[in-house]
Amino acid sequence: MPQRKKKITLIQRLTDELFRLRPKVMRDPRTKAELLVRARYHRVEDIIRKRYGSIYIQTVLNVGDIIVDEKGNEYDMFQLQREWISKAKVRG
């Protein structure tokens, strides 16, 4: 009997794609293929930012220790990271 694939949520797929593309984007593009990878990375990042907020994208990318949003609320990055990643159950 074939095994069923577990359905992956959109946030998991987007975060997995972001992690897959991130190492390829770190250097300057020298070819058309590298430029297209960079464009894809920025598109995925924009989708995540618009859907789930900039705090989630900063938490996933480990930017800083404390983040202050537009309203002046402070967020502890380590706590947010544990909370978001446990919700998303990111494979890594």
Record the SSE blueprint.
Layout: H1 10-25, H2 32-52, H3 54-60, E1 66-68, E2 74-76, H4 77-88
Antiparallel strand pairs: 1-2
Helix pairs in contact: 1-2, 2-3, 3-4
Descriptive overview:
With 92 residues, this protein is mainly α. It has helices spanning 10-25, 32-52, 54-60, 77-88, and strands spanning 66-68, 74-76. Strand 1 (66-68) and strand 2 form a beta hairpin. Helix 1 (10-25) packs antiparallel against helix 2 (32-52), helix 2 (32-52) packs across helix 3 and helix 3 packs across helix 4 (77-88). The longest helix is centred in the middle third of the chain and has 21 residues, at 32-52. 9% of the residues are buried.
Q: Any idea how many domains? A: 1
Task: Let me know the average pLDDT.
Answer: 79
Shape: globular
Largest sheet: 2 strands, antiparallel
Q: Helix fraction?
A: 55-70%
What low-confidence regions span 5 or more consecutive residues with pLDDT below 50? none
Strand content: 5-15%
Distance between the termini: 28 Å
Largest beta sheet: what is the strand line-up? 1-2
- What would you call the quaternary organization? single chain
Concise synopsis of the structure shown:
The chain contains four helices and two strands. It is mainly α.
